[in-house]
Amino acid sequence: MNSTARVVITEISGILGSTSNVYTLVCIARFRHLRSKVTNILIGNMCVCGVLLAITGTVVLMNYTVNVTLMDSVVGAASITTLYMSLLIILLIGVDRMIAVADPIGYKIRMTQKKAGLALVIMWVICTGFCMGVVTPTLYETNMCRFFPETVYKSFVLPLTVIITTAVVAIYVGILVEFLRQRKRAKLQFSGQFLPAIRRSRYLTKMTLFILIVFLATWLPYMTVTLRGPPAEGSSEVAFRTYRWIDHITHGLLHASSFTNCLVYAFTNPEYRKAYRDLLGCKKSQVNPSSSF
């Protein structure tokens, strides 16, 4: 795969990713039954990450030169920021859905938009500050070959990434177990006005499980290759060629994820399907907005 083909693929993925994520953001902002749910606010932030990832990836490749400028390093750091923010948001969505599944009646009190918004602001500030302060100079000094200094990567970034990823998987496995355990007794445990809300909450939980699967399948390979970096100087040409091919493939998978999530929303959640259709037809949504699960 030559550089021209990679640029074309990245541009196409960037256009598809930006368009689909912006469309989802417009749906969440326009329809009250979507924006009133904490989970959808978090998904909206995932869409923001998808848009930023599509833009930064395209900018980096289109402006790539042998001599890396400071602006190239800033854009690269922004791309790493969106990758780690995606992981943190997936973790926050997992906590949100765990509470919704374990305590559906008390969920509205435990998870509010104010709490979710505060958590998001803190995560964005810390993640952006760290990446801009550490990744930008490293990219500039190593000519885009390394994202983190070796000591920072081994002592902090790698262990933290492993811990967060393990926590995400553990939370979602717990959600799945609790989800299946409660499925049979839901109708007996809840009745009347709670049943529609419980049903919508389960749709949302099922959707986030699929999001996790897609995210890990596209995020982990790229981050593994990116953080390990290219072969050491003096390695064989075969090693460098293999690295370049793996980098191209994982890079393509990563950018594909920026629009595949929107397909997951549409196929696994009827509220999103209806919102997508209604926005295309310029109609107001008639979905019952009573649930905030």
Automatic annotation (TrEMBL):
Record field: transmembrane: 41-62, 74-95, 116-136, 156-180, 207-225, 245-267
Lineage top rank: taxon: Eukaryota
Pfam family of the protein (one): 7tm_1
Family annotation (InterPro entries): GPCR_Rhodpsn, GPCR_Rhodpsn_7TM, TAAR
Compartments (UniProt record): Cell membrane
G-protein coupled receptors family 1 profile domain mapped to chain residues: 20-265
Membrane topology: Multi-pass membrane protein
MF terms in GO: G protein-coupled receptor activity
UniProt KW keywords: Cell membrane, G-protein coupled receptor, Membrane, Receptor, Transducer, Transmembrane, Transmembrane helix
Gene Ontology, cellular component aspect: plasma membrane
Protein name stated in the entry: G-protein coupled receptors family 1 profile domain-containing protein
